[in-house]
């Protein structure tokens, strides 16, 4: 009798356990379905906001048209019908035009052919021709269509942009909710950084990053953020971090980096461009867009900041939003400044911004594809020819135009290194190289790695990062656990 009672009790317990497991499984399915529904709703909201952003940009583009001017111009065997005058730039006028045979809309930049701008225009055309040959979807640089030089004018045909970033943001009319500002702000930040990461991959400095030189180009569904105006661009050798340029080189105050506006010990202007000079300009631009003003009261205050050895880094008001991102870009010391690629990686791993970046990557446009793109060898070789060796600092350059031999650093990964590209092999030695040597070790017998430049801001805890930097995961804190969206 006791055995029968015990068996019945066990059977009842087993049935109860199975029922609980079934209820838990049903609950998990319901939660998963609810989470998927929330994701779809968030994605729909995101797509709706981006579509609204495009509509606003297009409306602003229509407002910039000032007059109708119709005439024809032939550029590299293509006839363009000029439709409207759009705007006037620093050196010339921008017109909206159409290809006569296809009706495709383009932009035509018409400049007066004067000796003082010929070198700059030649530089821009050379860069645009080469960059166009790099195959990548949603190209981050305005597409070059052709050019023509006459005795009086220079004509450049390019992809048509609906609006520049300055015009759009200055005249934005959408209702500025916290959610909208967060998403719209991240669209701008992420894809400006993507464009700059593209240039970093090619060791190119744009030299004049500002809202007027960043445009919105319509795509089939949304739009793409692209860079224009490469007249001030410079190609750097991979072994160099900084170069000296002409005193009269074109620049825009506030967006020009501190190293560009600094005076030397003889109180002479020492025009320096660093590989992170463009991200400084982007940081100033983001500060202006989201805080509504520059970090400095006037030009004199900014020049003083650039030349004051004791001036502290820019502090972004919490009310402006995106403080973490902007402060990474506005380090006065260019060697401490975050690159565009590194900042993108930080955004992807951020607990708040990472979710927005993931949505952008899936439904809008790839975010970090430029970091992994393949550059054709012939394009890379021709880009090297555009570098001006006489401008480089930190060592002499032989007459051949190639940088003098420098001591390469030892690759910390040794035989385990997976990088085979020429840039990496040019900068680092590996086992089997004549100049390879074992890395130095500290007193405790372990190799000392560099400290991560982001400190508490770093969200990368992968094995590769822990091998490269001395900071361990346990040494980090979560500085943004209470982060709030910008208002």
TrEMBL record:
CDD domains: STKc_PknB_like (cd14014). It catalyses: L-threonyl-[protein] + ATP = O-phospho-L-threonyl-[protein] + ADP + H(+); L-seryl-[protein] + ATP = O-phospho-L-seryl-[protein] + ADP + H(+). It holds the Pfam family zf-CCHH. This is non-specific serine/threonine protein kinase. GO terms for cellular component: cytoplasm. It is an enzyme of class 2 (transferase). Gene3D superfamilies: Transferase(Phosphotransferase) domain 1 (1.10.510.10).
